[in-house]
Specification:
This protein is α+β, with helices and mostly antiparallel strands. The protein contains 19 helices and twelve strands. The chain has helices at about 15-20, 25-35, 85-90, 105-125, 135-155, 160-170, 195-205, 215-230, 235-245, 260-265, 265-275, 295-305, 350-365, 375-380, 415-430, 435-450, 455-470, 475-485, 490-500; strands spanning about 40-45, 50-55, 65-70, 175-180, 185-190, 285-290, 325-335, 340-345, 385-395, 400-410, 505-510, 520-525. It has a six-stranded mixed sheet with strand order 1-2-6-3-5-4, with helices on both faces. Strand 9 and strand 10 form a beta hairpin. Helix 2 packs across helix 16 (about 435-450) and helix 2 packs across helix 18 (about 475-485). The longest helix is centred in the first third of the chain and has 22 residues, at about 105-125.
């Protein structure tokens, strides 16, 4: 089973952050409830070990959606270990003491020898490039050979993907996981009569995980990074954009991690990270579907309730200072041009975020390139300077960005497109949108979100995420009323307040004029007015 870790970069933001990371989902359920007679009877329980459980009873089909969220993500990665939350997500699919192995006791000494060998190898490799130490290259080769032999020895006991295959045989679909800035989540849909089997397997995965084949899997993560970022111009542009937009806050770090950090993980470090953050009192479990709530709670106590809680460390997250001048990033690559423009905005729940949500819909349209958004109509249809244009306000635990993403049309430069974007923004700053336009945005969003939220998994994902980010799933109803009350004047006010040059970060993918095809050349993230080191 290969996990699908989501590292949000190109403006996938307007649809993936609104859909997958739920920034739009926070908007959509209130509209769903307003436009249709849909009840959301969430039953809340807290297990004796502190695990928060949200249950929604729905008997439309004999199935159940299970969504287990841990309140840990890229924002919690320590310095020098970026991407460790994502690496942990990978390791959670490697089995337990009883699943994924033919003989766990025989594996233990092999893994211990692998760890000891790697410590020696890492110490010797660290001397490479040092002006004060000389690496023993022969010793490095010997240690690498020993690592390979030990890993081959362990393989005889490994049963790949046994957990996921067991659930698939029971009718499970969509078993997967994702890592975000703020959370890590594991999810699957099953026939409701297999709920107890899932509880047994998932509790075992939390209580008794075995991080077998750790170093080969670390290589898999490194390859994932090469594919999604290092050789992907838009992925790399997004990474540079984030690093420029955030100077202090860990949202500047790539969720998948920096390459040198990935190379440095050890099994012991990731296991320690797991023991801290994958505690039941740091988790939210949402179950939606064909269930009997009280019997389900008793089942959860039986399997999850025996897992002991762990003290949670105080989060020490650097606060992003106010931006006081435009920042720019230029990436030179043999690729089509791309432009990202970002403005700092408050976190979910701030009074301005409701108008910003409406503003995002107004600029982008409800669905990608639907033709209803002002940016699409202005840049693609009327001025013909762009192929597509999207916008969206990020939903997150901490202050984040409102991002506009545009792909210039053939023959058009990023500068031309950028100017066209600012012209559309100025229109909103000078004159509020018509009330009819605001109402059209609401109605179109209703129809789109209703279609996307009929699944049990969609509801499970929403209520768990909102429970963490807003502190209470009932915020969905609060937001419903707030969004209904947004006026055209409020939309104009937030456009004036946040869409300023001093609060702006711009990232441009500029095609190479010369150089090797496909190879990145020369990046710059020096804010205007700052000297190069």
């Amino acid at each position: 089973m290969r996990t699908e870790s989501r590292h949000f970069f190109p403006l996938q933001l307007a649809r993936q952050r609104r859909a997958a990371l739920l920034c739009g989902m926070l908007l959509c359920l209130p509209q769903l409830l307003r436009s249709q007679a849909v009840e959301l009877n969430v039953i809340e329980r807290t297990l004796k070990n502190g695990m928060k459980v949200l249950l929604v009873e729905r008997h439309d089909s004999p199935t159940v959606a299970l969504y287990l969220m841990f309140k840990v993500g890229g924002v919690d990665d320590p310095a020098g270990k970026t991407g460790i939350a994502h690496m942990l997500e990978h390791m959670m699919f490697k089995g337990t003491r009883t699943f994924g192995t033919t003989n766990y006791k025989a594996e233990i000494p092999i893994m211990e020898r692998i760890d000891a060998t790697y410590r020696e190898l890492a110490a010797e490799r660290a001397k490479i490039g040092s002006p004060f130490q000389t690496p023993d290259l022969q010793k490095i080769q010997q240690l690498e050979a020993r690592m390979k032999a030990l890993q081959e020895e362990q393989k005889q006991y490994v049963v790949n993907d046994e957990l996921s295959q067991a659930l698939e045989r029971l009718g499970g679909v969509g078993m997967n996981a994702s890592t975000g800035n703020d959370t890590t989540q594991y999810f699957v849909q099953l026939p409701s009569n297999q709920l107890e089997v899932w509880a047994m397997l998932e509790a075992d995965r939390i209580a008794n995980p075995v991080f077998r084949e750790f170093y080969p899997e670390r290589d898999v993560v490194h390859e994932e990074r090469r594919m999604r970022t290092d050789t992907n111009p838009r992925g790399l542009l997004w990474e540079l954009f984030s690093a420029a937009a955030f100077q202090a806050h860990p949202y500047r770090q790539p969720i998948i991690g920096w390459p040198s950090d990935i190379d440095s993980y050890t099994r012991e470090e990731v296991l320690q990270y797991f023991k801290i953050f994958y505690a039941p009192n740091n988790a939210i479990l949402a179950i939606v579907g064909d269930i009997q709530p009280e019997k389900t709670v008793a089942l959860l106590e039986k399997y999850f309730g025996v897992i002991p809680p762990q003290p949670q460390p105080a989060r020490k997250i650097s606060k992003e200072p106010e931006q006081k001048g435009e920042r720019r990033v230029v990436l030179r690559w043999d690729a089509e041009p791309q432009l990202y423009i970002g403005y700092h905005i408050p976190p979910t729940g701030h009074e301005d975020t409701f108008a910003l949500d409406v503003l995002g819909q107004l600029l982008s349209g409800v669905t990608r390139n639907s033709g209803t958004g002002r940016l699409y109509r202005g840049l693609v249809v009327e001025k013909k300077v762009a192929l597509n244009a999207e916008a969206g306000a990020s939903t997150s635990l901490y202050p984040n960005l409102f991002v506009i993403g545009v792909t210039p049309a053939p023959g058009k430069t990023a500068a031309e497109v950028e100017q066209a974007v600012y012209e559309e923004i100025e229109k909103l700053q000078k004159e509020p949108p018509a009330a009819e336009e605001i109402e059209r945005v609401r109605n179109a969003a209703d129809a789109s979100f209703i279609r996307s939220l009929r699944s049990n998994l969609g509801v499970a994902r929403m209520i768990s995420y909102v429970q963490y980010v807003a502190g209470d799933w009932r915020f969905l109803f609060t937001e419903r009323e707030k969004l209904k009350a947004v006026t055209a004047e409020q939309v104009q006010a937030v456009a004036k307040k946040y869409f300023s040059e001093n609060n702006r970060t711009v990232a441009e993918l500029r095609p190479l004029r010369a150089g090797a095809a496909g190879a990145p050349q020369q990046t710059s993230s020096i804010p205007p007015g700052e000297a190069r080191p």
